[in-house]
Amino acid sequence: MFLVMANPFSLEGETALITGGGSGLGFGIAECFVRAGARVVLVGRRTGVLEAAAKVLGKAADFEAYDVTKHDQVDTLIKRVTGRVGPISILVNNAGIHLKKSAIETTPDEFNAVLQTHVVGSFSLARAILPGMIERQHGNILFMASMASLFGIPLVAAYAAAKSAYLGLARSLATEVSRSGVRVNVIAPGWIESDMMQKTLKGDPERARKILSRTPMHGYGTPEDVGLAATFLCSPAARFVTGVVLPVDGGVSIGF
């Protein structure tokens, strides 16, 4: 039996909290969510960036300055946000930091800082938001992984460990909460035009050449490409999709 929907890709009535939402992939996701009818709350450390981004997005956007590593403040954040915009039905764990350094030069403190931002910060937010989603029997949690989650990339041991941890965390959560109406999925972006990508490739033309040579679509993606995939995964169109890892990579993960 088919469920009749005017637009199965609509996010009307949804409220999404997007970490790292003021720029890059987070902002690309926010733009697509707003176009699909959702309300968005942009979260990040830089108030000015968040305010400017929310202004561009219009009335459907709000923002909240918050450092995802401040785990003891997460409940206060969620109470503040929900008190202002209502229940959160979509959580996008996108905030992250990058560290390009050889493994033997990476200190344990540097390694831990990357894990705290990506893994512990995301888990902390999911843990705080999940009770409400489970109570309402409705919600979506989305983790932004990486090509570093799928295959070995040199000089990014901490980042690769953090992004790989997302896969296990998302799969475990999916098995726990999907029966309660909460779907959990992962997007693994390939090489997407962003400030982080520019920093990664800076001064390394050979790496850029290698990336393009193994990308079947022979180009870089855009934040909108990731945003459209995120919209699908959080929409009724993906109502029977949970626990998946969706590469948005122009074919990098299957290229040679």
Brief characterization of the structure:
It contains 8 helices and 7 strands. The protein is α/β, with parallel strands linked by helices. The longest helix has 29 residues, at 108-136.
**C-alpha geometry:** globular
Give the CATH superfamily.
Answer: NAD(P)-binding Rossmann-like Domain
Strands side by side in the biggest sheet = 3-2-1-4-5-6-7
Mean pLDDT over the full residue set: 94
CATH structural fold name: Rossmann fold
CATH first level: which class? Alpha Beta
Could you say how many structural domains there are in total?
1
Number of helical regions: 8
Ends distance: 42 Å
Order of helices and strands: EHEHEHEHEHEHHHE
The CATH architecture designation is 3-Layer(aba) Sandwich
- Poorly predicted sequence stretches spanning 5 or more consecutive residues: none
Protein architecture, described:
- The chain has 256 residues and is of the alpha/beta class.
- It has one domain: NAD(P)-binding Rossmann-like Domain (Rossmann fold).
- Helix content is 44%, strand content 15%.
- The protein contains eight helices and seven strands, in the order βαβαβαβαβαβαααβ.
- A seven-stranded parallel beta sheet has the order 3-2-1-4-5-6-7, with helices on both faces.
- Helix 1 links the parallel strand 1 and strand 2.
- The longest helix has 29 residues.
- The protein is globular and about 50 Å long.
- The mean pLDDT is 94.
